[in-house]
Amino acid sequence: MEQLAEKEIRASFVNCSKGEAGRINLPRSLPETPWDELDFLGWRDPGAPDRSYLVTGYQGVLTGITLRVPTGIRRSLTRTNICSFCATSHAGSGVALLTARKSGPAGRQGNSVGAYVCADLACSLYVRGRKKSQLIERYVENLTVEEQVERMVANVGLFLDRVHLQGEGEGY
After folding, report:
1. Per-residue pLDDT tens for 111-160?
2. Dihedral sign (CA 154, 159, 162, 163)
3. pLDDT band at 68 (very low <50, low <70, confident <90, very high)
4. What does the pLDDT average to over 82-96?
5. φ, ψ (nearest 5 deg) of residue 148
6. Residue spans per domain, the chain
7. CA-to-CA separations, 45 to 65, 87, 109, 151, 161, in angstroms, rounded
8. Of 155, 161, 164, 48, nearest to 107 (Cα)?
9. Which residues contact 126 (CB under 8 A, 6 or more apart)?
10. Cβ neighbourhood burial of 115 (10 Å; 0-12, 13-18, 19+)
11. Which end of the chain is more exposed for a tag (fewer CB within 10 A), N or C?
12. Residues contacting residue 128 through CB under 8 Å, at least 6 positions apart
């Protein structure tokens, strides 16, 4: 992923208003972000633990979505959950149901979609072995790292297909 500026990130959001996008807390570590190891930029809002954000190239356009994380859900450390983007397994609360309001009229009517995803949105780093899941080793796959990255990017694209409805106008 190429390095992004704050202005580009804020302008990319398709499922919130421009005012909401202007109030998003960007990652404090944005200047130190390992851009060459990311396929999408994802982060949790430290000031609002129920909010997350994802920004990536989607159909040739930089696209950002706001995500909500349900609060108060307790997970057992003896159970394993698998991220639907990168197929990394996590114990406890390492995977969270992230929901995104749809873009356009469907989103204004309150429609949303969800996926079980790495709670820290560090899928790119897990796939490349730069970050390890707590308590659980990543499954050994027959796919190369490049093939795993392709699968993850495709899974993110499928999720964005469900969020960003084609033909219903740009933005919220």
Report:
1. 999 999 999 999 999 999 999 987 677 778 899 999 999 999 999 999 99
2. negative
3. very high
4. 91
5. -65, -40
6. 6-163
7. 13, 23, 25, 26, 24
8. 164
9. 83, 86, 88, 118, 132, 133, 138
10. buried
11. N
12. 37, 145, 149
The owner of tokens 């609360």 is 93
66: which 2 tokens? 């706001």
pLDDT above 90 covers a percentage of the chain that reads: 69
Q: For the full predicted model, state whether its pTM sits above 0.70.
A: yes
Which tokens go with 161? 């297909």
Question: Residue holding tokens 């999720």?
Answer: 159
